[in-house]
Amino acid sequence: MKGNQQAYSHHRNFTIMASHNYFVYITTNPKRTTLYTGVTNDLPRRLKEHFLNSGNPASFAGKYFCYNLIYYERHTHVEHAIVREKEIKKWNRSKKEELINSFNPFWKFLNLEVEDE
C-alpha angle 101/86/63, rounded to 5°? Predict the structure, then answer.
């Protein structure tokens, strides 16, 4: 019985791990002049943190009021999300704008949409 319990436990853990969600996201300030790229496992919570931190000069997103979500993508493995975040952060503004436009051409603020998910 112990062997079957271990197999079930391993399978159960795999299922739980496989269902993890990690998000690479881009936020902007109200005038859409500054972009911030980040990664999180809880997008609604992180957006709320950005909002509550707005105006705080100790962080980039806070200093520039980047709490409006304009782009996001989901990953199931944290390692992939981190690699993608680093990739996007290296891009110039123009390339980031192309990515955002392909997903959200009018740069609509998506905060309320992800809070409902």
Answer: 75
